[in-house]
Design brief:
Elements lengths: L4 H14 L1 H21 L7 E7 L4 H12 L3 E6 L3 H10 L4 E5 L3 H6 L7 E4 L4 H27 L21 H32 L1 H6 L5 H29 L9 H25 L3 H18 L11 H7 L3 H15 L3 H30 L1
Parallel strand pairs: 1-2, 1-3
Antiparallel strand pairs: 3-4
Length: 371
């Protein structure tokens, strides 16, 4: 390595070590983000606060209530006596659902007749409502099968032997899906943000001009300043993967070396964007604004928060211009599915094109700003 690059790298590492705010940003923030989003972004719906109005209070009605309770999806935390109480509980948000077992439920069941059981849902949150409705429907269907079987005096054989099997995430836990995406967003945030801030910081302190008058060439200055942040980014990614594996129980089924190689390809793009932001910003505040302006849309359009398939077609076309979306598919494919290079090379090729083009353009612009 060029002997003039190493002092720049050493200078950058010393600056990071002596700046408590930068150290906190580099090492503490990724850990906080991982724990915060790892739990807060969970879409698993369990223990839904449910109101119960059992007008029968008989063995068959209690059996139905127990079937809902055993599922662990519904917690009967409120007992209602009329529809007004149910409406009040749902309107206030204290209950998200309500089960009403009508009078005459037991007698109709014993006579072999159908009895209407009401189930009310708070639809203001569609994610919870749709999931709760699916669970309640399955529970009611299973209970109906049990009732019919007891009438016939034998186990009822269903005409369709349906045997579902969930691959890669058998428990369908959202945290297992979200955490790999968090690693990708953390990697982008660290490389993009710190690269933008460090160059602007040099300009604000007046030290950038001092570096320009030295024999150091622009390309050497550029390499010396970005390489430390590449190392830091991979260190953060390693910490995040370790926490995700040991704390959240996330499996790592793919090749870790291949993951690091693909991560380096993605980092090229993030570094290029960070370098570009540094050339259009005069202060660190401007760099922060530009970084947030770039980060928020890319996270939303990457498929991290919302499935790309659920977006309108025009928006889906825009996601093809978001490199983070390709990297999220790569890291989730490697970590969760154990996919290899054969299945991921096309995503990596697109990332490499993005990275080389953006980094070359930004480096050229950076070179001109120094001259």
């Amino acid at each position: 390595m060029n002997s003039r690059i190493i002092p720049i790298m050493r200078k950058e590492l010393i600056h990071i070590r002596r700046d408590p705010r930068t150290l906190a940003l580099v090492f503490l923030m990724p850990v906080v983000q991982l724990f915060l989003f790892g739990y807060a972004l969970s879409t698993d719906v369990k223990h839904i606060a449910t109101a119960l109005w059992d007008q029968e209070k008989t063995a068959p009605s209690r059996e139905l209530v127990e079937a809902f309770r055993r599922s662990q999806y519904f917690d009967f935390v409120w007992n209602a006596e009329n529809y007004d109480q149910i409406a009040s509980l749902i309107d206030s948000g204290r209950a998200k659902a309500a089960l009403v077992i009508p009078a005459g439920y037991t007698s109709k069941i014993q006579r072999g007749e159908s009895s209407s059981v009401q189930f009310f849902l708070d639809g203001s949150d569609p994610a919870i409502a749709s999931t709760a409705l699916s669970y309640a429907t399955i529970i009611a269907q299973n209970e109906s099968i049990q009732i019919v079987s007891s009438r016939l005096g034998r186990t009822l054989e269903m005409p369709l032997d349906f045997r579902p099997r969930v691959w890669y995430n058998p428990g369908m836990e959202s945290v297992v899906f979200n955490v790999p995406g968090l690693v990708g967003t953390i990697l982008q945030w660290i490389t993009l943000g710190l690269t933008a801030f460090t160059v602007v910081g040099e300009r604000e302190r007046g030290t950038l001009e001092q570096l320009i008058v030295t024999p150091i060439r622009p390309i050497e200055l550029l390499i010396g300043k970005i390489v430390p942040y590449i190392l830091i980014a991979f260190g953060d990614a390693g910490i995040a993967l370790t926490i995700a594996t040991l704390w959240f129980g996330m499996p790592v089924r793919g090749n870790v070396v291949l993951l690091l190689i693909f991560s380096l390809v993605f980092v090229l793009f993030s570094l290029g964007i960070g370098l570009f932001i540094s050339t259009i910003s005069r202060t660190q505040y401007q760099a922060l604004q530009s970084t947030m302006f770039f980060m928020l849309p890319t996270i939303i359009l990457s498929g991290f928060f919302f499935p790309i398939e659920a977006m309108p077609k025009p928006i889906q076309l825009i996601t093809y211009l978001v490199p983070l979306s390709y990297f999220l598919r790569i890291i989730r494919g490697l970590v969760l599915k154990g996919a290899g290079f054969t299945y991921l090379w096309d995503e990596a090729a697109i990332l490499l094109i993005f990275g080389v083009v953006v980094l070359a353009f930004s480096a050229r612009r950076f070179h001109k700003r120094l001259e």
